[in-house]
Amino acid sequence: MAAYIILFIIILIFALLIYNPGKTPPPPEKEKKPSDNRNKEAEAQKRAEAQKRADEEQKAARERTKVQLEQRAREKAAKEREAQQKAAELKAAEKEAERQAAEAAAVKAEAEKKAAEEAAKKREEQKKREAREKAEAETKAKETARREAERQAAEAAAQKKEEERKAAKAETEETVPETIPEIPEYPEFSHSRLLEMGLSDEEAREFVDELITQIENQIPLIQAAIDANDFHQMERMTHSIKGSSTNIGTGGVADLLVDYNTYLKTGHDLPLAKAYLENLKIYLAKLREQYR
């Protein structure tokens, strides 16, 4: 290592001895000028190239700046167009919303108007219907009252005529006791007609039970007509239960009521009417025993 250091020092001293500015003579004046000229030309060329590069770099920088400015301008214009488009779309959306709202309001108003018209129409129809029904009811009531008055007048006239006939007969003729015919025996009541109509025995018995109740209710009314000597009323009372009994079956009360009602249409013997009523009570009791 020390040998290398010593060798390096020797080489350095030798180099210093060779290159000594004080001992080396300057070159002659004529030899120095061409070199200086070349150096100056080289330096001038370098400066020109440097200037050229600088100019090119400046030009490139200006181009880049121009491109950047144009890019920014385009981006700004694009943003402005986008903003304008969004504003236009928003305005159009607002107008569309206003249009739809106006249309909905118009539809609602039209619907409300139509509903009001329908309601008014229904109220008017209701008033007309009520007025018509009221008029019909009044007309019907008047007609019913008229018919009832006519019926009562006819009954009163018939009763008066009958009383006059009886009075005239009593004055001009001798009273001849009417022969009381013997009331026949009737077979047991049968609800065969209901069975023939397709009803079951149980259903038929229900109808018979209703008939029993109906006859029970009519007997006091027939008795009242007998007490009033009102043969017309007797005929009416027996007629209703006669129809019910003959529709259900035959025999028993059905046959008796046919004979009783037939007699009351022309006969006016009070004892016979009473005898029929007593027989009706007897056959009603038999009917109860048979079906209850």
UniProtKB/TrEMBL annotation:
GO terms for biological process: phosphorelay signal transduction system. Residues 177-187 have a biased composition (Low complexity). The chain crosses the membrane at residues 5-22. InterPro entries: HPT_dom_sf, Sig_transdc_His_kin_Hpt_dom. Residues 23-188 are annotated as: Disordered. Residues 28-101, 109-172 have a biased composition (Basic and acidic residues). Keywords: Membrane, Transmembrane, Transmembrane helix. SUPFAM superfamilies: Histidine-containing phosphotransfer domain, HPT domain. Residues 200-292 form the HPt domain. This is COG1565: Uncharacterized conserved protein. It comes from hydrothermal vent metagenome.
